[in-house]
Amino acid sequence: MGDEPYIDWAWLGRHLDGSDGVWVRLANHLRLTVIAVGVGLVVSFLLALLVRRWRWALSPVVWTTGILYTIPSLALFALLVPITGFTVLTGEIGLVSYTLLILTRNILAGLEGVPADVREAATGMGYSRSQLLLRVDLPLALPVIVAGLRVATVTTIGLVTVTSLIGLSNLGQFILQGIRQIFNTPLVVGAVLSIALAVLADLGLLGLQRVVAPWSRRAAGNG
Amino acid sequence: MGDVAAYISGHAGLFLQRTIEHLQISALALAVALLVGLPLALWLGHAGRGGFLAVNSSNIGRALPTLALLALLLPVFGLTDRTTIVALAALAVPPIVTNAYTGIRGVDRDVVEAARGMGMRGAQVLARVELPLAAPIVIAGVRTSAVQVVATATLGAVIAGGGLGRFIVDGFAIGDTPQIVAGAIAVAVLSILTEVGLGAVERLVTPTGTTLAQRGPRARRTAAEPAPGARAPI
């Protein structure tokens, strides 16, 4: 490895296409991330509504999501393999588990930050519970929720590389390939692309937030 | 589960050895991170400089997947535990820096002024006033890093290193389910014990008389919840 160049461009050119090429693995990486964060968002939202309805649920929810977050990803995947096998399902269950703590915490913090008088005014104007949630609470909580979404997405993109150890196709496969063959180029390709994907996803979500919720500009970045 | 129990009891010595390796790697990495991160953050916090970098280093660190960092360090340090230790230390620095900086900056300025008025020098103010008052938040950052290091040390096995991750990686390689599950349970238990144990230390170092309000929002976390700068344990 010593004097070998960090990247062999000819190798990269030969490994762009095909079922184990850069494009397919990049797309799979993105797909695993989007599904995990999407499902995580739905589950976290339900958990947050549960806590808002029944206050006593807060401790169990925080503890469960906290414990899931503390278990190392490789261990969690390993525990799931005997049940769900070396499948995308195993990967997604693990990835979703890691989004729950961050997303639930931020959704709750965002909803709690909605001023009480704004909610009262809306109720006084005849808004129903669901209208209040969709038209008042959620838009006002959006900046904090998106801040959590950004953290969850960036974290998930990093964790997806670990799912290559249970055989899933993604950028982590290049890293494993590089380690097994003691060859720098796939190592660097996998590492650099996953970092670039994380940075782009973070900036993309920030940009999206500014477009769909321009009122959130001042509050953005907390969480 | 019977197979798993049989595997563990049949390899008790190996489990002990791997656990010791795991803790050694983690302790070394955390020590390096503390030596680098803590003096830097305390000085920055005391001088009130570099706030943007100190606060945002956690966000930058999060974008760096552990496996990618291990991969990038591999050509430099080779297939050894040294690579793992350097990668873990690098990932442990940001939460330490962010929390220590925030903690020191959060100390009431009136208290600092009073200490100066009493004739304390800069270093004395830091050591006798700022650090004791910021201790819970500083320790919270160390705890976040420590849990992350213990959890992430598992991945050292991927680059042929020691530690409890070996059971999982070797188990995958030969399709030995009891070994995989036994390793996973050991890693999970060690991580949770680290989290809970350091939570107890955190409560011990909180000076009596420091109220929750003075400690700030970061100290008001429940035991299983990571500090704001935390990454997922990879």
Describe the secondary structure blueprint for this structure.
The complex is a heterodimer of chains A (223) and B (234).
Chain A: H1 9-14, H2 22-53, H3 58-70, H4 73-84, H5 88-112, H6 116-124, H7 129-163, H8 172-181, H9 184-212
Helix pairs in contact in A: 2-5, 2-7, 3-5, 4-5, 5-7, 6-7, 7-9, 8-9
Chain B: H1 2-10, H2 12-47, H3 51-62, H4 66-77, H5 81-105, H6 109-117, H7 122-152, H8 165-174, H9 177-205, H10 212-215
Average pLDDT for all residues of chain B: 83
Helix segment tally of chain B: 10
Q: How is the CATH topology of chain A named?
A: MetI-like fold
CATH topology of chain B: MetI-like fold
Parts with pLDDT < 50 across at least 5 consecutive residues of chain A: none
Taken together, the total number of domains of chain B comes to 1
Helix content of chain B: over 70%
Radius of gyration of chain A: 21 Å
Structure class of chain A: mainly alpha
- The secondary-structure element order of chain B is HHHHHHHHHH
Give a count of the beta strands of chain B, DSSP E runs of length 2 or more.
0
Average of per-residue pLDDT values of chain A: 88
Globally, the shape of chain B reads: elongated
Largest β-sheet summary of chain B: none
